[in-house]
Specification:
There is one protein chain. Helices cover 44% and strands 24% of the residues. With 202 residues, the protein is α+β, with helices and mostly antiparallel strands. The strands form 2 sheets. It has a 4-stranded mixed sheet. A two-stranded antiparallel ribbon has the order 1-2. The longest helix is centred in the middle third of the chain and has 34 residues, at 103-136. The chain starts with a helix and ends in a 13-residue tail after the last helix.
Protein backbone atom coordinates (compact mmCIF):
# COMPACT_ATOMS: atom_id res chain seq x y z
CA UNK A 1 0.00 0.00 0.00
CA UNK A 2 1.11 3.53 -0.65
CA UNK A 3 0.79 4.50 3.01
CA UNK A 4 3.25 1.77 4.01
CA UNK A 5 5.74 2.78 1.36
CA UNK A 6 5.53 6.46 2.19
CA UNK A 7 4.63 6.87 5.87
CA UNK A 8 4.39 10.48 7.08
CA UNK A 9 7.36 10.08 9.42
CA UNK A 10 9.61 9.35 6.42
CA UNK A 11 8.74 12.64 4.73
CA UNK A 12 11.82 14.81 4.18
CA UNK A 13 11.98 18.59 4.28
CA UNK A 14 14.76 20.67 2.75
CA UNK A 15 15.21 24.43 2.45
CA UNK A 16 16.81 26.50 -0.25
CA UNK A 17 17.61 30.18 0.20
CA UNK A 18 18.90 32.49 -2.53
CA UNK A 19 18.82 36.07 -3.78
CA UNK A 20 17.55 37.40 -7.09
CA UNK A 21 17.02 40.99 -8.26
CA UNK A 22 17.49 42.34 -4.75
CA UNK A 23 14.96 39.97 -3.18
CA UNK A 24 15.75 37.11 -0.82
CA UNK A 25 13.82 33.87 -1.25
CA UNK A 26 13.30 30.85 0.95
CA UNK A 27 11.95 27.78 -0.83
CA UNK A 28 10.73 24.91 1.34
CA UNK A 29 10.76 21.54 -0.42
CA UNK A 30 9.41 18.12 0.52
CA UNK A 31 10.08 14.58 -0.64
CA UNK A 32 8.05 11.60 0.48
CA UNK A 33 11.14 9.61 1.37
CA UNK A 34 14.93 9.81 1.10
CA UNK A 35 17.54 7.06 1.06
CA UNK A 36 21.16 8.19 0.73
CA UNK A 37 21.31 9.79 -2.75
CA UNK A 38 17.72 8.96 -3.77
CA UNK A 39 14.55 10.98 -3.29
CA UNK A 40 11.10 9.46 -3.66
CA UNK A 41 8.26 11.65 -4.91
CA UNK A 42 4.68 10.39 -4.76
CA UNK A 43 2.62 11.96 -7.57
CA UNK A 44 -1.14 11.31 -7.16
CA UNK A 45 -3.07 12.00 -10.33
CA UNK A 46 -6.51 11.56 -11.86
CA UNK A 47 -4.90 10.72 -15.20
CA UNK A 48 -3.65 7.38 -16.51
CA UNK A 49 -0.05 7.11 -15.22
CA UNK A 50 1.13 5.65 -18.51
CA UNK A 51 0.07 8.80 -20.39
CA UNK A 52 -0.18 11.80 -18.05
CA UNK A 53 -0.58 15.27 -19.59
CA UNK A 54 2.65 17.07 -20.40
CA UNK A 55 1.71 19.98 -18.14
CA UNK A 56 1.28 17.65 -15.16
CA UNK A 57 4.61 15.93 -15.84
CA UNK A 58 6.35 19.29 -16.17
CA UNK A 59 4.91 20.44 -12.83
CA UNK A 60 5.93 17.22 -11.06
CA UNK A 61 9.42 17.17 -12.55
CA UNK A 62 9.95 20.85 -11.77
CA UNK A 63 9.08 20.28 -8.12
CA UNK A 64 11.31 17.21 -8.07
CA UNK A 65 14.25 19.07 -9.61
CA UNK A 66 14.06 21.93 -7.12
CA UNK A 67 13.79 19.48 -4.23
CA UNK A 68 16.73 17.50 -5.61
CA UNK A 69 18.84 20.65 -5.90
CA UNK A 70 18.10 21.62 -2.30
CA UNK A 71 18.87 18.08 -1.12
CA UNK A 72 22.08 17.92 -3.17
CA UNK A 73 23.36 21.16 -1.65
CA UNK A 74 22.35 20.11 1.88
CA UNK A 75 24.09 16.71 1.62
CA UNK A 76 27.00 17.84 -0.62
CA UNK A 77 26.25 15.13 -3.17
CA UNK A 78 27.61 14.91 -6.74
CA UNK A 79 24.22 13.73 -8.05
CA UNK A 80 20.73 12.83 -6.87
CA UNK A 81 18.37 10.15 -8.13
CA UNK A 82 14.72 11.20 -8.12
CA UNK A 83 12.18 8.40 -8.16
CA UNK A 84 8.76 9.57 -9.35
CA UNK A 85 5.78 7.33 -8.62
CA UNK A 86 2.74 8.34 -10.65
CA UNK A 87 -0.34 6.92 -8.94
CA UNK A 88 -3.89 7.07 -10.21
CA UNK A 89 -5.82 7.30 -6.95
CA UNK A 90 -9.11 5.95 -8.31
CA UNK A 91 -7.76 2.72 -9.78
CA UNK A 92 -4.38 2.18 -8.10
CA UNK A 93 -2.55 2.18 -11.46
CA UNK A 94 1.12 3.11 -11.14
CA UNK A 95 4.08 4.14 -13.22
CA UNK A 96 7.61 4.56 -11.86
CA UNK A 97 10.23 6.83 -13.40
CA UNK A 98 13.72 7.42 -12.03
CA UNK A 99 16.01 10.24 -13.16
CA UNK A 100 19.66 10.74 -12.30
CA UNK A 101 20.30 14.46 -11.85
CA UNK A 102 23.89 15.63 -11.76
CA UNK A 103 24.98 18.78 -9.99
CA UNK A 104 25.66 20.48 -13.33
CA UNK A 105 22.17 19.68 -14.62
CA UNK A 106 20.50 20.88 -11.44
CA UNK A 107 22.50 24.11 -11.32
CA UNK A 108 21.57 24.88 -14.92
CA UNK A 109 17.91 24.16 -14.20
CA UNK A 110 17.84 26.23 -11.03
CA UNK A 111 19.43 29.26 -12.67
CA UNK A 112 16.43 29.35 -14.99
CA UNK A 113 14.14 28.98 -11.98
CA UNK A 114 15.89 31.86 -10.24
CA UNK A 115 14.98 34.18 -13.11
CA UNK A 116 11.38 32.96 -13.02
CA UNK A 117 11.12 33.41 -9.25
CA UNK A 118 12.38 36.98 -9.55
CA UNK A 119 10.00 37.81 -12.41
CA UNK A 120 6.92 36.54 -10.60
CA UNK A 121 7.99 37.96 -7.24
CA UNK A 122 8.35 41.52 -8.56
CA UNK A 123 4.59 42.31 -8.53
CA UNK A 124 4.19 40.77 -5.07
CA UNK A 125 7.13 42.75 -3.73
CA UNK A 126 5.77 45.97 -5.24
CA UNK A 127 2.37 45.21 -3.73
CA UNK A 128 3.84 44.70 -0.27
CA UNK A 129 6.14 47.71 -0.51
CA UNK A 130 3.85 50.26 -2.18
CA UNK A 131 0.25 49.21 -2.65
CA UNK A 132 -0.62 47.71 0.73
CA UNK A 133 0.69 50.70 2.74
CA UNK A 134 -1.20 53.09 0.46
CA UNK A 135 -4.38 51.04 0.88
CA UNK A 136 -3.91 50.83 4.63
CA UNK A 137 -3.49 54.62 4.86
CA UNK A 138 -6.20 55.53 2.35
CA UNK A 139 -8.25 58.60 3.25
CA UNK A 140 -11.95 58.95 2.53
CA UNK A 141 -12.02 60.91 -0.76
CA UNK A 142 -14.89 63.22 0.12
CA UNK A 143 -14.99 65.99 2.73
CA UNK A 144 -18.16 64.73 4.37
CA UNK A 145 -19.72 61.34 5.06
CA UNK A 146 -23.37 61.08 4.05
CA UNK A 147 -26.04 59.95 6.45
CA UNK A 148 -25.96 56.16 6.71
CA UNK A 149 -22.56 55.80 5.05
CA UNK A 150 -20.62 55.49 8.29
CA UNK A 151 -22.81 52.61 9.46
CA UNK A 152 -22.49 50.77 6.15
CA UNK A 153 -18.72 51.31 5.98
CA UNK A 154 -18.27 50.00 9.51
CA UNK A 155 -20.31 46.90 8.67
CA UNK A 156 -18.32 46.23 5.48
CA UNK A 157 -15.01 46.73 7.28
CA UNK A 158 -15.97 44.29 10.06
CA UNK A 159 -17.19 41.75 7.49
CA UNK A 160 -13.92 41.77 5.53
CA UNK A 161 -11.84 41.62 8.72
CA UNK A 162 -13.81 38.62 9.99
CA UNK A 163 -14.00 36.89 6.61
CA UNK A 164 -17.77 36.55 6.79
CA UNK A 165 -20.67 37.64 4.54
CA UNK A 166 -22.85 40.73 4.60
CA UNK A 167 -26.21 41.38 2.97
CA UNK A 168 -27.10 45.07 3.09
CA UNK A 169 -29.85 47.21 1.58
CA UNK A 170 -29.56 50.97 1.17
CA UNK A 171 -31.56 53.64 -0.71
CA UNK A 172 -30.39 55.39 -3.85
CA UNK A 173 -28.03 58.28 -3.21
CA UNK A 174 -26.46 57.06 0.01
CA UNK A 175 -23.17 56.34 -1.75
CA UNK A 176 -23.18 52.57 -1.69
CA UNK A 177 -20.19 52.17 -4.00
CA UNK A 178 -17.83 54.23 -1.87
CA UNK A 179 -19.34 52.83 1.32
CA UNK A 180 -18.32 49.31 0.28
CA UNK A 181 -15.15 49.84 -1.75
CA UNK A 182 -13.39 52.21 0.66
CA UNK A 183 -13.59 50.08 3.85
CA UNK A 184 -12.78 46.94 1.84
CA UNK A 185 -9.61 48.57 0.50
CA UNK A 186 -8.61 49.65 4.00
CA UNK A 187 -9.14 46.11 5.31
CA UNK A 188 -7.12 44.57 2.46
CA UNK A 189 -4.33 47.04 3.25
CA UNK A 190 -4.27 45.59 6.75
CA UNK A 191 -3.79 42.08 5.40
CA UNK A 192 -7.43 40.96 5.45
CA UNK A 193 -7.89 39.77 1.91
CA UNK A 194 -6.03 39.71 -1.35
CA UNK A 195 -8.28 41.05 -4.11
CA UNK A 196 -11.44 43.09 -4.42
CA UNK A 197 -14.08 42.39 -7.05
CA UNK A 198 -16.90 44.91 -7.32
CA UNK A 199 -19.84 43.66 -9.41
CA UNK A 200 -22.91 45.66 -10.37
CA UNK A 201 -26.21 44.58 -11.89
CA UNK A 202 -25.81 46.39 -15.18
Amino acid sequence: AVDRRFPPEKRVRTELSFEADGHRFLVICHADRAEEDTLYMLCPTEYAPAHPPKTFVAEVRGEGYVTAYAYLKEKSLPAVHVHFLYLRTETGEEKEVTEKLTEKKLVTFFEKCRETFARYAAPAAERARVRLPSMRNAVFPYPHVRAGQDELMAAVYRTVKRGTSLCAEAPTGIGKTMSTVFPAIRAIGEGCGDRLFYLTAK
